[in-house]
Amino acid sequence: MKVAVLGANGRLSYEVAKAFLVAGHSVIAVTRNGKCEGLSGDVEFRAADVMKAQDVVAATQGADVVFNGINPPYDKWDAVCMPMAQNVIEAVRANKAAHLFIGNVYNYGKEIPVNANEETPHRLTTEKAVIRENMENLFRRYADDFGVKTVIVRAGDFYGGDKPGTWLDLMIAKDLRKGRFAWPGKMSIPHAFAYLPDLAKVFVSVGERSEELPVFSAFCFQGHTLSGEDFGRALDAITCTPLKRGGVPWGMFRLIGLFYPLLREVVKMNYLWFTPHSLDGSKLEAFLGGIKVTPPQEAIRQALYDLNLWDRVQARSRLAA
To answer: What is the value of pTM for the model shown?
Structure first.
């Protein structure tokens, strides 16, 4: 296949592009400036401003599959998410391609349960849940009205890969050198995570078999379900030393958010760290005939290495020895 990967410099899109290349497919890496370091092989680089419909149509020309990993800044969602979604789905329609979209757990709202699946009701209790639901409804309308195929794979919080900007490097593991880790919520409750290299391979498998699917379909990727206690034990084992446990100063974040819109939007979604939840991936596993998931401790270890946090861990390990 020829696969256009939108936002190829982003965390997930970059991993997806690499995974499709490893699987032997051709990749069109679409970025704002037409550059994406680190990709090699059967790859073509194209530039596009996703806010310009004609750019997206041109950038995805010739693609059999379009992977939509566009993720604008958190505080810009109101203004740009729907126009971007419209431009992408119009381009997919114009080029007669299939559309792969990364979903998240926001649609389930603040009452998200453990083992949420494709049949779990969507409760639009946050602004971002409304935006995500509107995007998915747009894709459904294009499927119903024009036969534009969309496959949604819903996943939990990202970690892994060598692109920074996840909870792992920004908060959870940033103070490993000082012998501690921080957890953003209640230590005892389960939280849904997606290790990006695993998730990227799932998108390859789904893309390769997209012709078997109906014109609109959605799946849940189970990934890793980890509590703060689980994460802490994994980090203790990796560093060979018991780490001090810490939290996140949400009260201070709220005050800073009065002047820093991005942080304000992060605080609005912090319920996910205080609400037990997970995803049931049974439907996706049945369709693909099983999914190989990297064991959590191995995934966390690799994620630390890829983010250049490994030196800190090794230093702690040597001290412990």
So the answer is: 0.95
Query: How far apart are the two ends of the chain, measured CA to CA in Å?
Result: 50
Give mean pLDDT, residues 12-23.
98
Region 139-161: mean pLDDT is 98
**Segments making up each domain of the chain, as ranges:** 2-159+193-224, 167-191+225-275+293-320
Percent of the chain predicted with pLDDT > 90: 92
Provide the strand spans (E) within the chain: 2-6, 26-31, 43-47, 65-68, 98-103, 150-154, 157-159, 180-182, 191-195, 216-220, 224-226, 244-246
CA atoms within 13 Å, Cβ hemisphere of 196: 25
Report which of 92, 103, 94 is spatially closest to residue 149, judged by C-alpha positions. 92
Q: Which pLDDT score is estimated for 176?
A: 87
**Residue 66 near residue 92, CB atoms below 8 Å:** yes
Domain 2-159+193-224 indexed as CATH 3.40.50.720: yes
